[in-house]
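tokens incoming
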């Protein structure tokens, strides 16, 4: 999967915006980060729920790994080369949902339905 596809999808979500986050890029909804992109565009970090993370790790170990912050697992790290686009998009949407207010979530279902 190419980073350009990730960007296009993330920005298609209601009120999603791209902004810098230290030396990373990030995608946010109303200021809340749901994806970060380390330099190089080879990986993305997606901030999903524990349940979504564990399911993705079990089903797609070839391109999904735990994203750590110190000793704490905070999401998933996706290796874009070889990643299944529909899986990545599903994880991005799940992360967006966790950060977006309910009113925007309803708008997303109407738009993306």
């Amino acid at each position: 999967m190419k980073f350009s596809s990730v960007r296009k999808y993330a920005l298609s979500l209601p009120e999603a915006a791209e902004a810098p986050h230290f030396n990373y890029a990030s995608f946010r909804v109303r200021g809340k980060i749901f994806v970060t992109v380390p330099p190089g565009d080879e990986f993305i970090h997606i901030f999903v729920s524990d349940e979504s993370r564990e399911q993705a790790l079990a089903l797609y170990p070839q391109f999904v790994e735990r994203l750590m912050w110190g000793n704490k697992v905070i999401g998933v790290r996706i290796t874009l080369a070889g990643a299944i686009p529909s899986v990545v998009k599903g994880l991005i949407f799940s992360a967006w949902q966790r950060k977006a207010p309910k009113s925007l979530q309803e708008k997303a279902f109407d738009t993306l339905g």
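note: The mean pLDDT is 94.
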